[in-house]
Amino acid sequence: MAQIKVTDLTFCYEGSFDDIFTKVSFSIDTDWKLGFIGRNGKGKTTFLKLLMGELPYEGTISTSLFFDYFPYRLPEGSMERCASAFLEELKPGCEEWRIICELGALEASAELLYRPFGTLSHGERTKVLLAILFSGDNDFLLIDEPTDHLDQEARESVKRYLKGKKSFLLVSHDRALLDACIDHVLVLERETITVQRGDFSTWWEEKSRRDHFARAENEKHLREIASLRKAADRSRRWAQKNENSKIGFDPTKEHDRSIATRAYIGAKTKKMESRVKQYEKRLEREIRGKEGLLKDIEEPVSLKLMPLTYHKERLIECRELALGYGDGTASRTVLEDLTFEIKRGERVLLFGKNGCGKSTLIKAILAAAPAPQVLSDQPQAASAPQVLSGQLQVGSGLKISYVSQDTSFLKGTIWDFCEARGLKESLFCALLRQLDMERVQFEKDMSAFSEGQKKKVLLAASLLTPAHLYIWDEPLNYIDVFSRMQIEELILTFQPTMLLVEHDQWFQKKIGTRVVELDRWL
Predict the structure, then answer these.
(1) Angle at which helices 152-163 and 122-133 pack, to 10 degrees?
(2) Quick one: which of 104, 165, 518 has its CA closest to 323?
(3) Parallel, antiparallel, or unpaired for β 374-376 and 168-171?
(4) pTM for the whole thing?
(5) CB 392 within 8 A of CB 333
(6) How far apart, in Å, are the Cα atoms of 370 and each of 213, 317, 366?
(7) Nearest in space to 11 (alpha carbons), one of 37, 52, 43, 45
(8) What is the DSSP letter of 25?
């Protein structure tokens, strides 16, 4: 068993004035199945790059092991080549037969290695790259969000695969995956770093207990501080009143006073002032004891949504719908004979494998809606699907707020983004702060944001858009677990009508009112 020891690690990106890590120290064992958890922008991917030696830093990271990283950076032209042709470029010394064995464990066919990489689905590409990653020996494997963009079936196979492995560090926001695969957690909390045995649920339960205790201690300290301040103020006023009575009195009214009582009053005042100083010292001790109690507590702010109420019960209706691309004999059918509807107040989850037509159906709905009513955070694709047969009816005057799964188009400043979409900057930035985005990010170009931060920009824009129907296509990709909980609470509180594509099992069970399985309509 080897260890990775991090001592006084300090890192800041060039040109930035906020440290990602400051004097951080901890150690982890390399035979653990370690889950890496933290808010978006806290430095999870950055830490993996530091382990790989890709970035300069202050402090020390000591270990005797080598690291390998998923996802691999694909060589130029790899989309037109078979994976078998560039294996050596990704992992020098890897053996093809071992990769084939790993593909079998991932419930995937060896023929994936011999097809052009660009023709593989997201899930197939992930399986090929994971098989390459695990085909070596003596490396500590760094796995960065392997299940984003994967359908439920692919997630399940990756989950089963990782459950049987050891010696890796897994960055993921998928709570079901973390519970299934890991035996330790490494958590970047608000101010500190926690290393703990157990899965995500074990850590969350322990954290909830710690937070409850910290809040109780904080309340106790606040009451004690208030009591001490009140007592100190009372003694201070008494001392001042006595001090003022040392000189000057009316002999006709105060028969018990004389010049000789002045020394007695002075001694009494001095005693009271000493008592005030004692109170102040106790106050300082209590305040010091209170400091840091709440530093790691996650207190997600309750978000707000402004859904509109549509005047009819039915918003969207499909009858024996067939969708595809192209015209005539060159057309390619993606969905056929699909019948379903969305009624007011429903939260419909589209479910199925990658490529079964979930995003195609969403694009068709957006294309069928009156253009001014589609409040989209991305320009509509020029190649909208064609209705080959059947009916697709979108309610008249229906306002739709859409969040795309793609974030690559986000460039420029927050202010440019708000101006282009008619959003009030102050409200938009306030909402991003509620989603735990640091103010320092607002001055950066959005292309420099992490993927999770980009997703929060799109979600914030949608939340500020009053609409009858919210269509979110994989909204939780890259979003941290704390923000996922905020979004779940938001949806359950405001009950908007929604059409969702999302593969997070916890989210599905908590949010969905109805599931439409598209696999059966292929």
Answers:
(1) 10
(2) 518
(3) unpaired
(4) 0.77
(5) no
(6) 53, 15, 8
(7) 43
(8) E
Q: For the chain, list residues with pLDDT below 70.
A: 1, 15-17, 228, 232, 238-240, 242-269, 272, 276, 279, 283, 286-300, 327-331, 371-383, 520-522
Is residue 132 within 8 Å of 91, Cβ to Cβ?
yes
Q: How far is CA 76 from CA 79, 80, 81, 117, in A?
A: 8, 9, 10, 12
Q: Do 320 and 338 contact (CB within 8 A), yes or no?
A: yes
Neighbouring-strand partners of residue 34: 169, 184
Q: Which helix (H) or strand (E) holds 388?
A: strand 386-394
Bridge partners, residue 429, by sequence = none
Nearest of 147, 178, 144 to residue 67 by alpha carbon:
144
| Pairing relationship of beta strands 184-188 and 58-62 according to DSSP bridges | unpaired
C-alpha–C-alpha distance, residues 413 and 430, integer Å = 16
- The answer to whether residues 386 and 361 touch, using CB atoms and an 8 Å cutoff, is no
Give the DSSP letter of residue 116: B
What stretch of H or E contains 160?
Answer: helix 152-163
Phi first, then psi: give them for residue 79, nearest 5 degrees.
-65, -25
| Spatial distance between the Cα atoms of 359 and 256, rounded to a whole number of angstroms | 95
Quickly tell me which residue has 């010049």 as its tokens. Answer: 259
* pLDDT at position 443: 86
How far is residue 472's CA from residue 465's CA, in Å, rounded to a whole number?
A: 13
> Contacts from 120-128 at CB under 8 Å and sequence distance 24+?
121/354, 121/355, 122/149, 122/150, 122/154, 122/354, 123/150, 123/151, 123/153, 123/154, 123/353, 123/354, 126/71, 126/150, 126/154, 126/158, 127/103, 127/154, 127/157, 127/158, 128/83, 128/99, 128/103
Q: Say what the alpha-carbon torsion angle 62, 66, 72, 78 is, to the nearest 10 degrees.
A: 140
Please write down the long-range contacts of 206-215, taking CB distance under 8 Å and 24 or more positions apart. Answer: 207/298, 210/296, 211/296, 211/297, 211/298, 214/293, 214/294, 214/296, 214/297, 215/294, 215/297
Among 170, 160, 156, 163, CA closest to 353:
156
**DSSP string of 326-343?**
SSGGG-EEEEEEEEEEEE
- Please report the pLDDT score of residue 170 as a whole number: 95
Give dist(CA 185, CA 33) in Å, integer: 8
